[in-house]
Amino acid sequence: MRIALLEDETEQAQHIQSILSESGHHCDSFPTGQNFLSAVLHRSYDLLILDWQIPDMTGIDVLESVRAQLNWPIPVVFLTQRDSEADIVRALDAGADDYLAKPARAAELGARINALARRSNPDSEKEVLRYGPFEINTQQRVIALHGEELTLTDKDFDLTLFLFQNQGRLLTREMLLERVWGLARDINTRTVDTHMSRLRRRLGLNPENGFRIKTIYQRGYRLEAMKAQDQAFDVDEPARAAND
Predict the structure, then answer these.
(1) DSSP letter (8 states) at residue 169
(2) pTM for this structure?
C-alpha cells in the first residue's frame, strides 16, 4: 500500500518507514499537518498514520480535515504517545479506524495495517463483483455489461477492476501506472490518458449505464456512480472524452 505518515520526529519517522518498507509498503513522511494535508488531498494514498502532537496543529485537526475534504473513507491509524482512554475515545469518535501507542511494535503495526486494508476493500477476495449493470469475474478475467461479455485487453481488465474497486476515489496518473502497469513514476503518464479515453467507449461509461470516469484537472481520474439528476443532464464527460 501507499501510506502517508504524519510524524515530526525524524528518528520516529524513519523507524516507522523502515517497519512499513519491510512489510512491502511505500511510506511518505510529513513533519507538519499542512504539508501532510496538501499531499493527502492531491495525491493517492491507501492509508494514513497520524501522530497527535505536531508543531502546527493537532492530529485530531488533521483527521477532521481529511474526513471533511476527502471523498472516500480512507483508513486512518493514530500512532502516538497519548494513550489515555479519553484520547483513544476522542480519536475514534473523530473518525479514526485504529489507535496505537508509541513506541511502534513492528509485528503489531504491520498486522493492524493489513487488517485495515482487508476491511477497506472487502471485494478483494470475491470471485464475482457486481456494480450496477457491470459484472466482473476476477478469476476468469471477464467483464460483462447487461450480461454481454465485453472485448477487453488484459490491461483494460486490470484498469477497469482497479477503477471499480476504488470508485469515488481520486486516482492519480502516477498511482495508476504503479498499480496497473507496475511502472515507476517517471514513465510518460499519457499512457493512462489513452487507456481512459478508450475505456469510456469500450465500457459504455455513460448516463444510461450509471457510471462515468471524471477527469480531475492536473491530478487524475475518478470513477463515479451517477445520481438520477446526473443521468438526466450530463454534458461534462462526453466533452472531456472528446478532448482526451
Answers:
(1) S
(2) 0.73
* Backbone phi and psi for residue 130, each to the nearest 5 degrees, phi listed first: -125, 130
- Say how far apart CA 98 and CA 92 lie, in whole Å: 7
Which of 209, 213, 202 has its CA nearest to residue 236?
Answer: 213
- Walk me through the domains of the chain, giving residue ranges and CATH numbers: 2-120 (3.40.50.2300), 128-225 (1.10.10.10)
The helix/strand/coil state of 49 is strand
137 has which bridge partners? 128, 142
Over residues 214-243, the pLDDT tens digits come to: 998 878 899 999 875 454 444 444 334 334
- Rounded distance between C-alpha atoms, residue 147 and residue 167, angstroms: 21
Which amino acid makes up residue 219?
R
| Whole-number Å distance between alpha carbons of 122 and 165 | 9
Sheet holding 220-225, edge to edge: 171-172, 220-225, 211-216
